[in-house]
Amino acid sequence: MAFSSYAYLGPEGTFTEAALLQVPGAAEAHRLPVATVGAALGEVRSGRVDAAMVPIENSVEGGVSATLDAVAVGEPLRIVREELVAITFVLAARPGARLDDVRRISTHGHAWAQCRGWVHSHIPEAEYLPASSTAAAAHGLAEGAYDAAVCSPLLAERLGLAVLASDIGDVSDAVTRFILVTRPTVLPAPTGADKTSLVIPLPEDHPGALMEILDQFAARGVNLSRIESRPTGQFLGDYFFSIDADGHLADARVADALKGLHRISPNLRFLGSYARADKRPSTIAPRTSDEAFDAAESWVEGLRGGS
Ligand SMILES: O=C(O)C(=O)Cc1ccccc1
Fold first, then answer.
1. Does 108 sit in the ligand 1 pocket, CB within 6 Å?
2. How far is CA 100 from its chain centroid?
3. Superfamily of domain 90-166
């Protein structure tokens, strides 16, 4: 799937841009930096661009709520690809600055959450100013509203900033997962190492509703790689589940699980089936293989036909 135009969480130099540049052909395509995840998805929904790259999950901080919520409502979207980016942070400041003088620090909320430990032990009196991205914080240093920004080493170098400290992430091998989102389209072909993303509203407040949902996956041997609950925003206690399952809609066990889920929660949203970035194939028990599902289907058809 090659696209000619992409929106991404900008400005230039974000980790999201790094994720986008990993997509074959993206370096030669039109790339539109926008200020928020919502704006990036809006550019796709309105048809101004073919696809958008946005962060969805970090190995330290967890899900990116802005993304989980924005894909769960509004005009339907499809995830067609995922990218993993290893994240390292530096504390960058205007040239000539000293670590001892840093009080006000700006960055993206997810970056802050991953560097909080380092900041508290090295600059206990630090004050945090949220920015729309790590790169927005770095670009904004020139205006003087804060003393330092947490951003990528590459951007600090590109902007000619002083690096006051390197590798300030509390976990050294943090990874962020990004998704490439389009309008509904034909699914990418199954690769054998795929993922399916779903948004499942909790059907009604009855005991065991979540168990019933999980059972649809368990009974068909479908492994889950992420499950998060998010409030719908409608009223207190109203939640949906954001789920990534191993496998592709073309796999019988995944399709069968989705049919079961549709009976339980008819308003569930299919967000897409796409190749896993780590290419790790799903383990499939013989009783949940496509062949086992086909054999079971033929058996029932045979019985209905009188054999
Ligand atoms: O702000 C950025 O650079 C982003 O792309 C969002 C983000 C922030 C922190 C970790 C991973 C992604």
1. yes
2. 36
3. Periplasmic binding protein-like II (3.40.190.10)
| Count of all residues that appear for the chain in the document | 307
Question: In the chain, what are the domain boundaries?
Answer: 1-87+174-186, 90-166, 188-307
Assembly ipTM: 0.96
Q: 105, 129, 133: which to mutate for ligand 1, most atoms within 8 A of CB?
A: 133
For the Cβ of 55 lying below 6 angstroms from any atom of ligand 1, the answer is yes
Domain 1-87+174-186 shares a fold with domain 90-166: yes
Q: How high is the pLDDT of residue 238?
A: 85
**Atom 12 of ligand 1, residue of closest alpha carbon:** 15
Half-sphere exposure of 132 (CA within 13 A, CB side): 18
pLDDT, tens only, 242-292:
999 999 999 999 999 999 999 999 999 999 999 999 999 988 999 999 999
Tell me the backbone φ, ψ of residue 260, rounded to 5 degrees. Answer: -60, -40
Distances (CA, A) of 254 to 49, 76, 83: 30, 20, 22
Q: What atom in ligand 1 is closest to the CA of residue 110?
A: 9
Position 90, amino acid: V
